[in-house]
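Predict structure. Chain length: 468.
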Amino acid sequence: MRVLSLRSRLALIILVPLILISIIAGYWRFTVALQTAEDLFDRTLLASSLAIARDIDISAGDALSEITRDLLRDTSGGQIFYHVNGPDGVYVTGYATPPVAPGAATQPVGQPIYFQSQHLGQDVRVVRLREASNFEGLSGFSMVTVWQTFDGRDQFVRDLALRAILLIASLVLTVAVVVWLGINFGLRPLTDLQGAISSRSSDDLGQIKRPLPKEVRGIVSTLNTLFDQLEQSIHSKDVFISDAAHQLRNPIAGVLSMAEAVRSARTADDTAERTDELIDAARHASRLANQLLSYERARAGSDSGRGTTFDLVEITNEVATRNAERIAACGLDLQMDLSETPIFLQGEPVLVAEAIENLIDNALRHAGPGLSRIRIHVAQHEFDAEISVADDGRGISPEDQSRAFDRFRQLEPSAGSGLGLSIVETIAKNFGGTVSIESVEVGACIVIRFPISAAKQPYPGVRVGGSC
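Prediction complete.
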C-alpha cells in the first residue's frame, strides 16, 4: 500500500476542504444569480407593462410614446412582446395571441400576475396587469400582457455564474500555490534534518544538535534517546565480547594442554588420569560458554516467550527435581517449601528456570565445606512472587554483597565463572523484579522477587513463613 508523503497529506488536508467550500460557494452564487436575474427581469417586465398601460391610457390606444418604445427596445433581456385589451375586452394594440395565464380567477386591479408559458414554441416569462382606463369616453378595465423569452435571462445568469466561478477558481488556485510553497518552506527543517542524518557515518551515534521547530523536537529527542541506547548496547556487547574472549582463553588453553598431555602419556594409568583431567577442563569450558550465552540471552531480554503465562511453582519444582540427584550425590539435604497454589507469571519460563538453576549452582560451588542443606522457598505476596534459595554454608559477608553480582567476579577462588549471580540479576530485571542477598544467622539466602497482578491469580496470595 502506497503511503502519501507528508507534503501531500498537508496539501490534501488544506485544499480538499477549501475546494469543497468553493463548490458550495459556487453553487450558492449560482442560485443567488438566478434569483437576482429573475427579480431584475420581472421588474423590467412590470416597468414595461406600467409604461404601456400609461401610454395606452393617454393616447386612447393610438400609439406608444417614444420613451416607452426606447424602453422596450433597449432592455437588456432582449425583445419584449406586449398585448393590450380595452375595457370591453377588445384588442387595442400589440402582438396577437398573447400567452394564456393558468386558471380563470379574476385578477385584482393594480396587482401584477407572473407566470411562465409558451409563445411560438419558446418558453417565456409573462406578467399580466389589470388597470382602470378610459378609451374615448368608454371607462373600464384594460388588460396589459407583457412577455419575454428566457434567452437574455439565461445569458445573464451564465455571465454572473461564470464571473463567480472564475473568481473562486483563481482564489483557490492562488491559495493552492501559496499552500504548496508554504508547506515546502515549512518542511525545510525536516529535509535539512534528513540530509544531516544521511550524511552521518555508520559509526556516528552522537546526538543531533541543531535548531528545530518545536513540533519536531519530540521526534529528535526520541531519536537521540534511541541513539544513546544503541550506543550503550553496542558498547555493552563490545565489553561482553572482550570479557568473554578473556575468560575463555584460559579454559580453552587448559583443554588444549590436557589434550597434548593425554597424547604424550607414557602409560595407561597416566593416560586415564590425564583423560579425567581433560574431561574436567572441557566441562569447565563448556559450563563457562553456556553461562556466557545464558547471560547474553538474559541481558538481551529475549522476546520468544514474552506472552507466555507459566506457573512459577511448577517451574521451580521441575528445576529442583532435575538437581535433586546432584545435590544428594554431594551428601546434602534438599528442602522444598513451595506455595500450595499456582503463582502465574508472564514472560519466558526458560529464563526463570535458568535463574533458579544458577542459584542452586551458586550454593553448591561457593557455600564451602560446612554446607549440609539447601532450602528452596516459593511464596506469593499481594503484589509480588518470591523465590529464595538458602544454604547453611559460610555465607556472604556484608562487604562482599555489593560485589557478588559483578560479572566474572569471584569472592573466593573456585571452579565457578563469576557469572551465575550476574545472570540471575539480569533475568530478574527483565521481569521487572529484583534480586537481593538477605541477612541470615547462618549461611546465605538469595531472594528473587517478581511483580505480579493479584487480579490475575486464581487464589489470593498468602505468605507462608519467612523467605529464608
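Summary: Residues 6-59 form the longest helix (54 residues).
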